[in-house]
Amino acid sequence: MLKKIMLGGIAALALAACGNEGGNSAAGSASAPAQEQAGSLLDRINNQGTIIVGTEGTYAPFTYHDDAGKLTGYDVEVTRAVAEKLGVKVDFKETQWDAMLAGLKAGRFDLVANQVSLTTPERQATFDKSAEYSYSGPMAVNRKEDDRIKTLADVKGLSSAQSLSSNYGEMAEKAGAKIVPVDGMAQALALVQQSRADFTFNDSLALLDYLKKTPDSGLKTAWTAGADQKLGSGFIANKGNDEALAKISGAVEELRADGTLKQLGEQFFGEDVSVK
């Protein structure tokens, strides 16, 4: 999962709470599970109803709150564009990363939009993914004065601030790093700045966005994966939603063809991230 696991213009280090804004709602707010609402996900799409989408809200530039408090970001705006293509409304539910897929499995969300790539067999056995709307790869950042990391092998024995259930936590463990558990990217970067962790792995786009927007962070790029390691992220749904995902994938491909994905990529990253 590309968290897929986060900052880059993050306005707060804690989960933001917001009222309903075009279908936004705060984490922990009361709502009926998606599976208890009228009909299936396919029914709600066909009947132009409301779909519930789980996202973090603290993972810039993919899902975060702008200076006015509005939920935005690449994944959020792609979701809104897909919803417009399908003629449905979207209700975003913000939650911590570690609880997101569990919430999807439990039926609290119809979809997850949070830079998920479904890389593990366990997740692939439980969830399905739509057509991919972005591609990126892993990157490591550390303190500017620390020159110990030049290759992936150099992280062995170093401490890495990571969310335990993320792809990047798995990557750090596999590379032989010692894991310092965190809730998300914002906390991970803070621990590296404070010398409480040596480095952190995360998505290259999120980290580059952060480094660009906070040039005085004291952090730098330590290592970046090659192009052959790029993964694609899409909307994630529980197994058994093939027809609904086909419609969602069709909308994603329409947005790729009409230039919407390119435009959103340039808006948030300065380049089209919907192609490898």
UniProtKB/TrEMBL annotation:
Provide the leader sequence positions.
Answer: 1-16
Q: What is its main location?
A: other
Ranges for domain Solute-binding protein family 3/N-terminal come to 50-272
This protein's source sits in the domain of life called: Bacteria
**What does the UniProt keyword field contain?**
Signal
Which InterPro entries does the entry link to?
SBP_3_CS, Solute-binding_3/MltF_N
Location in the cell reads: Cell envelope
A Pfam family (short name) is: SBP_bac_3
Q: What family does this belong to?
A: Belongs to the bacterial solute-binding protein 3 family.
UniProt-recorded name of the protein: Amino acid ABC transporter substrate-binding protein
Q: Which species is the source of this protein?
A: Uruburuella testudinis
